[in-house]
Amino acid sequence: MRVIYSIGVRFAGGGIGSIAYHAVRGLHRHGLLHRLLCGSYRATEIPEARIHALGLLSRVLRKLAVYDVSRWLTYLHNALYDRWATRHLVPCDVFHGWGGFSLTSLRRAKALGAITIVERASSHILYQAHILREEYERWGLSFRLPAASLRRAVAEFETADYVLIPSDFVRRSFIERGFPPARLIQIPFGVDIHRFHPGERQRSGPFRVLYVGQVSFQKGVLYLLQAWERLRWSDAELWIVGREERDILPLLRPYRKVPGVRWLGFVRDPVATYQQAHVFAFPSLQEGSALVTYEALACGLPVVTTPNAGSVVRDGIEGFLVPIRDVEALAARLEQLRADEQLRHEMGRAARRRAEAFTWEHYGDRLAEAMQSLREQR
After folding, report:
1. Torsion angle of alpha carbons 294, 296, 301, 307, nearest 10°?
2. Of 53, 44, 55, which is closest to residue 22 (Cα–Cα)?
3. pLDDT at 202 over 70
């Protein structure tokens, strides 16, 4: 069986590039990988002879796109990558392309007789655009996303034989848009349980709530800060870890000097940060299946998040699920976990057990099995 895997970012470079690495690693381990197409790549155990990369042009355009608030440069990069990838397609059994990078490639792969899969690591693009537009308007701002990006993503969903998704939340967002459930393949993400693990020493110091992720409207950080302010704790800490998105900066100013809030910025290796926290809070408005929730579980932290984070957290077992934008519910669950040390420890132990069922090795195996099953059904 021959699989071509395509993603227009830096392979093994973090974010979705990291997800892609574990997927390709699994395909390679099962002897299915025929060719990897990518924007650029970091050297791994994947043989370079199987890798084709757009290279410097991709890296430059993606770096410039960070400063483009219109998001048009991202669209142009993705379309350019797609055309480049299309020229590097050869006959295969399965073509797996990431959403936003694969419309022309999907069409060409279908013409070559391949089973086609597009991966969507977030909610349906129309749901995502709706909730972000709604959120920006709540704060008096306008959300910009080229209409061409929406059309391109929807066309990819319609073109591919299957859409690969990571969570029940994403499944619901597709079904609500009328997408056939039979064309959805659901495989949750994973975590490196050897790298992310509970600390050897018992957590000391003040009670700490941890947030890790981009500091943006999408992640619900403002609601976490409102909940923290409502709790009025003078002997506890809220650690905010992650890069701050430009749009949200003016709204963060009132919270810069709130007692207990520590702004740590981007942390390259957050393991020790997780190990110093007591609870992980992630009130996201929409995700596919946030990797940071898996990491927090693996480090033995109770997780307070939303159903829209697409996590594998079960309400009342490894933590709590609260509605999006519900400041009162978020504050109440944090207060409950601080007050009940036994519950916190029980949930922490359950969190670690839960993470052990979602390793990256399991993810790679499930993806390989799914592809083999599709070929057998044809």
Report:
1. -50
2. 44
3. no
The string of pLDDT tens digits covering residues 216-263 is: 999 999 999 999 999 999 999 999 999 999 999 999 999 999 999 999
Short-list 5, 225, 197, CA closest to 105: 5
pLDDT for 185 equals 98
What is the fold of 3-190+359-377? Rossmann fold (3.40.50)
Listed by start position, the domains of the chain span 3-190+359-377, 207-355
Which has the closest alpha carbon to 82: 63, 58, 116, 65? 58
CA distances from 235 to 126, 207, 355, 373 (A): 43, 8, 30, 54
Within this chain, domains 3-190+359-377 and 207-355 share the same CATH topology: yes
- Structurally, at CATH architecture level, domain 207-355 sits in 3-Layer(aba) Sandwich (3.40)
CA dihedral 155, 15, 195, 24 (to 10 degrees): 50
**Letter for the amino acid at 344?**
R
Give 333-364 pLDDT, tens digit per residue.
999 999 999 999 999 999 999 999 999 999 99
pTM higher than 0.85, yes or no? yes
Contact 8, 78 (CB under 8 A): yes
